[in-house]
Structure formats: structure tokens, C-alpha cells
Write a structure and sequence with these properties.
The protein has 447 residues and is of the alpha+beta class. It is built from ten helices and 18 strands. The chain is globular, with a radius of gyration of 24 Å.
Length: 447
Amino acid sequence: MELNVFIKKLFEAAKSAGFEAAEATCMSGDSFSVNVKDGQILDYSVSSSMGLGFRALVNGKMGYASTQVLDDEALELLIHGAAENAALIENEDEQFIFAGSASYPEIAAYNPAIDQVTAAEKIDMARRLEKACVSIDPRVKACEMVEVFSMASEKRIVNSRGLDVSFRENAMGLYAGVVAQDGEEVATSGAVRFVRDPAKLDIEDAAREAVADAVAGLHADKVQSGEYKVVLHRDVAGSILSTFDSVFSADMAQKGMSLLKGREGEVVGSDALTILDDPLNPASPAATPFDGEGVATSRLAIVENGRLNTLLHNLKTAKKQGVETTGNASKPSYASPVGVAPHSMQIKPSDLTRGDLLKMADGGVFITEVQGLHSGANQISGDFSLGARGFMIEDGKLGRPVSQITVAGNFFDLMKNVTAVANNLEFGFSSTASPDLLIGKLAVAGK
């Protein structure tokens, strides 16, 4: 059945069933990826997907159901599924189906040029990427993984209260993971690229970055245990921010699971720290003009020069707190219930370079990689203890490589100890990003 016809019938059936309001979230997408090894295709994937999520107000409760098939049988299943789901809900929180914002931002996230890149061209890119990686330095003899991918997606939210919004996007990207070896010493590294313009997918530059980082990590040693000035590589800083992003959720705060509950207006970080949620940035994989409830998004300063301006809200949490929604209703898939989450969280860059931060952190440690973010981090207390590797900072520059070390601290203390922020913000596959950060002091365990 054609989508518009299906939605019309669905809303008519919902009305006949006595539902107060109904909404359909439609998501579709195409993806391509190719992995190569020794010039041969190791893995090749082409997929398409489509799904429709249905939610409805039934006696004041929000019921959910979903389908991947648009036919008369699916209509009946959605109506019954939503009614049964609503009947199981015990909490009394007020639920909302939104009629729409006055206007929505324009985001240039779809480029027809990406759709013109053929599968054969993407396979050739992957082979060229692998060849470039193993030809730059004789100590790099192999790649762990070389991948080129593309994606295109469209989402649409339609409801019985007049909302009808849609957004289309596409992107390309690559990953190059290399292995450097010198005698018995082995080091690995990788480079990621995510672009909205295929002309900006620089294969040689990605290969140079991956190889340089891997070779520089050879012959690493431990560092003496102690407190150090630490520069966090932008990827590490972004990963830590992503791990603890739930502390900024009003939903988590209202459930007593965020230490930022009730602290709006307080200083929670250093003057150098500004944390944004910017879904209007087309460079982000999570760019979007509306949230999971159809509310228009905007660029939001969550923390501004250390001060907590707001937590992130959807319509339900905003109503409970007596504030306006921040447009952060989360619905990661068509079948997901509505929650709260950042769209594209990032730490605001400054004018300082990485070199500036290294000079300020002379005698400290530059952390390029951490492990154990899921097992070694407590999102409620903020405590973390992570395996790490990187470099000593000697004479204001990168010195000898270090590995088999542990960095430990607390996310809330970390925010207060951000001494300086670099200018090198860059998105990879993640919707959370950060420039390099200089942390005034952090515990490092080694030998």
C-alpha cells in the first residue's frame, strides 16, 4: 500500500477505535559498505530498510506499535498493539502528540553527488586507501580494516493533529585501520572520515594520518604513576563526553539518576568549557531540523563558560519541570519509544591549536586512545578508570610513546579542570565530538 494511503487509513482506524490522537514515524534508508584485504573484497554489503512506528494516546496513556509492512493486516495489528501497550502503562505522566512548530530550520545534509558515486568507484576507493596505507612507511605491512561506506536516509513524522515534517540526508565515509611493526614491537591506529561531499573524501590524507599515528606509537613504555597535566585527543574527549551525556538528560535527572538535577544556573565546569547541542550543523551525522516529537531543533548551549544553562528536555519532561522543551525528544528508530537525548553534542572549540595546548601541558601526557569506557565508567557517579595510551609531552611537543597506563578521575571534576580547548573539532562516525582538551590534572597510573 502507498504510504500516504496507509497513514490515512491508520488515522481513520485510530479515530474509530476512540484514540485521542495518533502519530506515524516513517524511516527508510539505503546503505553500502565494502571492506578490502590485500586488494580483495573481504566484505560487501548493500541494504535497504523501511519501517513505520505508530504511537497513540489511549485513555491518556501512550501506546506504541510498529511495522515493516504496509497492508490492511498491519493496520489492524498496529491499532491492537498500541491499545494493548497503552493498557500496560502504570505511571501518570502527561503524554503529548505535538501539532507542530511555527517554522523549521533548513539543513543542507543531502548531496545528489553522493548518489552518483557507483559501487565500482567505492570499491576502487577502498583498494586505493589500502594501497596508500601500506606504501607510506615500510613498518606498516598490513591493514586491520579498510572500509568505504555510503548511506542515505529519510524520516517523516505525521500525526492527526496536523504535523507533517520530513528530512532527507546522505553521506559517505571511510575507515583505515593500520598495523605498524618494528621488530617485536607492534602498534595500531586508525583514521575516520565522514563527509557530505564526495570531493572532500581525501584518501591519501586519511592514510597519512593512520600511518603516522601507528608508527609514532611504536616502542611505547609505561609512565611513572602520578598526577599530570593531560591533553585529551579530540577522539578521546568526544568518547568520554558521549559516555556521560546522560547526565544532561532531564529524564535521568527526574528519575534521580543525574547529579546535575536541580543545578541549572550553577557553575559546573571551567570558564573554558562550553558544551553545545547543535543539530543544525550539517557536518554532524546526527543533523536534524526536528526531534523525535516533531519539535523544531535549534543550537543549544547546555553549559556556557562553565555554567549549566539547561538540561535536555522533551515535551513530557519539560511539562513536569514547568519549562519549555529544548527539542531533544529522542527516537533513534521508528520502533523506539520517545526518550531524551542530545542530537549532536559537542564542546565548543577555541582559537588555540593542538601545539598551543602541548606547550601549556609541558611535562604532561597526551592521551590518544582509551579502552573500557563501558566497563570502566559509572554514568551516575561520574567515576571512570580507563586503560590508555599516548605520548609524553616533552619540551612542549610530543615525545616518547606510552602505553599500558590507566587514567582515572571523575567526569564532573573533569569539567571543572578543563584548562584550555583546541580548535580542531571534527566529526567522525559519532554524533558527539570535541576538540583536544587540556585537563589541569588527572591521575595516571603506570609504573
